[in-house]
Structures are given as C-alpha cells and as structure tokens.
Amino acid sequence: MSRTRASRALIALLCVTIVLGMVAYFRKPKTTTASEQPKVSGPDTASAAPAAKPVEAASPAPKAGRSTQIALGNNAAALITQTPGVGIPAAPAPTPTAPVKPTAVSPLPATPTGAPATPAAPKPAVEIPAAPAVPVNAANSASVISTGKAFIESAKLLEGRRILNEALISGQLSDADADAAKALIMKANDTLIFSPRKVEGDPYVTSYNVQSGDKPLKIAAAHDITWDFLGRINNISDPRRLRAGAPLKIVRGPLHAVVTKSKYTIDLYLGSPGEKGSLYVKTLRVGHGKDNSTPTGSWMVTPQNKLKNPKWWGSTDEPAKEADDPKNPLGEFWIGLTGVDGEAVGKNGFGIHGTIEPDSIGKQSSHGCIRLVNSDVQQVFEMLVEGKSTVIIKP
C-alpha cells in the first residue's frame, strides 16, 4: 500500500514538472532574423515605420512645335522656323543652401525648354580668345575703333573684326565712326570671307572635303550659299575642276542685304542684319527710283528669278531690249524681289540690277529698282540666295 502511494506521488511530481516546463517554454519571447520581420503595410501601430512622403508629379513637358524667331530688323517680317519640342522630366528639388549672389551676365535670347537652342550665329569650331567686351558709347567709341584697327593691322583679324563688329551692331557709333568700323571690317573680310584662306576659330566659316559624286550646286545649297560665291572665295571659276578630296572653304550662309536710300548704299550681312550674332560683310554704292519711287520695307529674293544677261521687257518710255544689247538698261545681272512687309507688300516687278549708266549711282534715276555698277551687282548676285536671302530697304 505504501509503495502504491509513493508511485502515485512520483507520477504527480513528474506531471507538475512537465506542465511547468511547457508553460515556461511558451511564455519565452520569440526572436526572429531581419528577413523574418513582418512587412508593415501602413501606420496601423505606433511601432510601424512612417509612411513614405508622396513623390510630386513632374512638371509637364513642353509642347512640341514651339517656334524660334529670327528677327530681320525694322519693318522686316519675322521668319518662323519650327523646332520640335522634347519632353524633359522636372529635376528633383535641390537641397536648400545659403543664397548665392548672382553674377551679372550678358542677356541671351530665350530658347524653348527641351528644344535645341538656335544661336543668332553658328557656333565656332574653336573658341576665339576674346578681349573683355567694352560697352560702346559716344565717349569711348573712338577708342574702340582704334583698338580694333590695331588688332587688324597686327594681323589679328578675327579679334579686330569682332571688336569692331560688336561696336557697329550696338548702334551706338556715330555715322563717322560707323563708316570707319565698316572700312576696317571690310579690310579684314578681304581675307576672312573673300579669300581661300581659312583662319582657325572663325565662327562664320567651316571646311568641307569634296566627296566622290558630289555636285557643286548641292554642296553650296547645303550651306545656304550659291556656287558662284563658293567658287569665287575658293578661286574656282569652273565647277568641272572640282575633284574628290579637294578641301573647300565654306562661308555659312545665307547672306542678307540692307539698302539705305538716303545714303545710296547696300550693306551685306551674314545673319539677320543688325541683330546680335550677325556679321557686317561689305558695303556697295547704289542708285534707286526717281522721285523716291523705290518702296521701303522687306523683300525676299524671288525663287527662279535671278538672271544673267536678262532681257529688258520695256516700259512706257523705253522699248524692250534683248540680252547682251549694249543699250539694255539692266546691265548683265537681275535679282528679282518679292515684297513681304511694309510698303513692299503686294509690289512686283522690282529688283536689283546692273546699269549702263554708271553716273546714275548715288542718284534717284531708275524706274524704282536698285541699281549698281556691273562689277558690284555681280558680287551681290553671287552672294544672295533665292528664297532665303532678304533685302531690307530703309528710307
């Protein structure tokens, strides 16, 4: 009987021990690894990770088809060129920093966001080491002229031309100083524009190596100039002499013209005349219409209306004359014009031509057209491009 009780007591003790061990086991905190941590789907408890800050939507991309405008000056109509827009996501907001004092810079024309910039003048292949720009005013214009002259006379043609051209384009020079600047720029351009020599770093000039199968007219058209002009600056009178591998000096066109009736002049420019980035090239003397009959405004060189040895179709006071007739009042070249702005709109039959009366240059003696001596009109004929070059006629 005593053994039975002892056995029962031992069994009871073992059961209590097992129960207590199981309770202790299940009450022990569970430890997990990082990979076993539960994911928090939201801020449901105080221990949950804070929600991520919402990402702001990017600014809308600019609309395609924005236009850049090329200004022609005075009453000239603006030429519009479409540039496809390219969407660019907004950049992340920068970390706030201490304010930085802005540095003064020269203002530049605004360009559409996301579209390739359209500079007023072609970017040079090599940057030109430039002297610091000096603001031009009546007090220091003479100094600017003398500085530009010194550079040109020391064979630093690009630097001298840049200084003088910037002063001229600024519009701050007196008439006398403007004429002096033009004379010096023309001297530099005899080499920089009108000779086969290419000066390193000239932003208005590039080079091209003729490829097998190239056509002279296509090479010129690809750079918005005429073959006659391209041949002249490279001393090539016959395009059949062009050979594969030959290097060509290319002036980046097109060229434009400004006629000032009161001065009896025609100025040639690369780029929109008088605008930032344009380059004054040359001035020639002209005559124009009797009784101030030449309309002012803007004109376009008419496509398929540039003629060598043109026929004169006659007028109320002069009979028609055939081409090459020594009495043909048009001389040897005709550049037809189409009015696009100002008094010129709707006008037809006007143009730029030569003359058999060289004494009429500097006078009002034509039927309304612009006339030059034959050697000068040939240069203008070569420099202006049909459908691309503009002629602005000012009072």
Model description:
The chain has 395 residues and is α+β, with helices and mostly antiparallel strands. Among the domains are: 130-192, Methane Monooxygenase Hydroxylase, Chain G, domain 1 (Up-down Bundle); 197-253, Membrane-bound Lytic Murein Transglycosylase D, Chain A, CATH 3.10.350.10; 255-394, Beta Barrel (L,D-transpeptidase catalytic domain-like). Helices cover 24% and strands 18% of the residues. It contains 7 helices and 14 strands. It has helices spanning 2-27, 141-153, 157-170, 175-192, 216-222, 227-233, 374-383; strands spanning 67-70, 79-82, 205-209, 247-251, 255-260, 265-270, 279-285, 288-289, 297-308, 333-341, 351-353, 364-366, 370-371, 390-394. The strands form 4 sheets. Strands 7-6-5-14-9-10-11-13 form an 8-stranded mixed beta sheet, sandwiched between helices. β5 (255-260) and β6 form a beta hairpin. α2 (141-153) runs antiparallel to α3, α2 packs parallel to α4 and α3 runs antiparallel to α4 (175-192). The chain is elongated, with a radius of gyration of 39 Å. The N and C termini lie far apart (143 Å). The model is unreliable at 29-132 (pLDDT under 50).
